[in-house]
Amino acid sequence: MSFEYTTEVEVRYTDIDTYGHVNNATYATYFEEARIDYLHDVVDCGEALLSGSESGTGMVIANLEVDYIQPVQISDSVAVAVRVPRLGGKSFPFEYEVRTDDGVAATGETTVVTYDRDTESSRPIPEDWRAAITQFEGL
């Protein structure tokens, strides 16, 4: 399964650690930026999730994994590829590749759980989200 969605991420001075490369914790932020862009562009709900106005539906991260392959420097151009390989009933994974001109710098995965903001409990993935992701990813 290939990555059909990619977004550019700017490496900021504050991303760099004392070793002169992007700090390991920053990759979670890069994943988040790519995930929100994906949701905005594919599902049309990224901004609503951030503002809390998405008809009572939210999502939380249940799991986060990062595998580091090579360092990213401040001068690197960075793109993050993101995809959803499958959908569950109330959760689904996002897979990521952090890419520079030198190749893949890191890979990762987050598992998100959809939840009802009013009851603060998990809920089924909204049907419009499911339809949009299924169509985009060819699931």
From TrEMBL:
SUPFAM superfamilies: Thioesterase/thiol ester dehydrase-isomerase
InterPro entries xrefs: 4-hydroxybenzoyl-CoA_TE, HotDog_dom_sf
UniProt keyword annotations, A-Z: Hydrolase
GO MF, any single term: fatty acyl-CoA hydrolase activity
Pfam families: 4HBT_2
Similarity comment: Belongs to the 4-hydroxybenzoyl-CoA thioesterase family.
The protein's name: Thioesterase superfamily protein
Organism the protein comes from: Haloarcula vallismortis ATCC 29715
